[in-house]
Amino acid sequence: QKVLLTGGTGFIASHVLDVLLDHGYTVVVTARSEEKGKRIIDAIPPDLRDRVSYVVVADIAQPGAFDQAVVSDPPFDFVIHTASPYQLQFNDPIADCLDPAIKGTTGILQSIHAFAPTVKRVVITSSSAAILDPPNHPKVYDESIWSSVTLDQATDPAHTYRASKKFAELSAWNFLTTTTPPPSFTLATINNTYTFGPLPRSLASLSSGTINTSNLRILDLVRGQHRAAIPPTAPVFTFVDVRDVALAHVRAMEVPEAGGKRFYVVLGGVLPSEEVVAGTVDDFPEGHWRFDNSRSRGVLGVEYRGLEESVVDTVRSILGMDVEG
Ligand code: NDP
């Protein structure tokens, strides 16, 4: 069976690709240029290369950007859409973040609906940012909760990223309910939290410009940026390993009951003790919000690696790179 995977150069997508290949799929990844597409293919072990190819989608915010990419022979069975800007600073919040996130999401669904009727399931990488609602935390976060960030707040750079994720996800669910005739595919979203793990093999070299935003935090530690003092952290700290996030995407594509559901993919530790909470909501300090990851464990079978394994493997992967800058 065949999968279209967007944002092939990305940190999360690189691990989704590994799981897809492991599960026997043929995969077409999207990349913003020929050069990036070639780099992805070159990083794949030679014995798996005959099952991967790339297609260039230069600007996902453009109308019809995916019209050609969704057409393939043999046709696609599934689409996993990870491409979206994950930065915390923007020159132009609309052009640099909100448009690619929101128009990219509605655009790919429109293209699938119009040109790829064989697609059965679409999985979109949303984020915990579409769930979390600071400072008005509920007692327990689960998939029933949505961030209350508004479109009016979205152009304030402090809110742009989380608004991009909320409104991209919301527009996807709205597409499903408002489109006529109804789309032939079902939808699942992965709302993963702050994600750590080994860097993509296709990363040419390591600099703060190319490492993804969440792993940058670990790169800073490795480089001794916090030698003098560890910066203050929130009382509740959530994280998840990228390999668990990747498996969640592929299971959300494969498992029939996953259709129509969001999945909060999250584990937690309480800093500064760095005690890893093994998937339970019971060990959090009194008075702080908790999370419920039971749907991802129950429906998708995610077992969750602990913080130590995740950080150790991330550091190993960073030390193995050709470090620049
Ligand atoms: P990366 O920055 O590694 O990957 C982002 C991917 O999106 C890259 O392939 C990038 O392409 C592509 N992309 C970004 N902007 C555009 C654009 N305007 N047009 C086309 N492609 C674009 O980050 P992650 O892998 O971490 O992020 C992947 C997804 O996961 C995003 O949707 C992000 O919001 C979500 N997420 C990430 C979390 C984390 O902690 N890492 C947590 C929760 C959700 P290029 O390489 O060419 O720039």
Automatic annotation (TrEMBL):
User: In what residue span(s) does the NAD-dependent epimerase/dehydratase domain sit?
Assistant: 3-262
Recorded superkingdom: Eukaryota
Q: Which UniProt keywords apply?
A: Oxidoreductase
Q: What does the record list as coiled-coil region(s)?
A: none
Q: Mind listing the GO molecular function terms for this protein? A: oxidoreductase activity, acting on the CH-OH group of donors, NAD or NADP as acceptor
Gene3D superfamilies, sorted: NAD(P)-binding Rossmann-like Domain (3.40.50.720)
SUPFAM superfamilies according to UniProt:
NAD(P)-binding Rossmann-fold domains (SSF51735)
Family per UniProt?
A: Belongs to the NAD(P)-dependent epimerase/dehydratase family. Dihydroflavonol-4-reductase subfamily.
Q: Which PANTHER family match?
A: NAD DEPENDENT EPIMERASE/DEHYDRATASE, STEROL-4-ALPHA-CARBOXYLATE 3-DEHYDROGENASE, DECARBOXYLATING
Name this polypeptide is given: NAD-dependent epimerase/dehydratase domain-containing protein
Which organism encodes this protein? Schizothecium vesticola
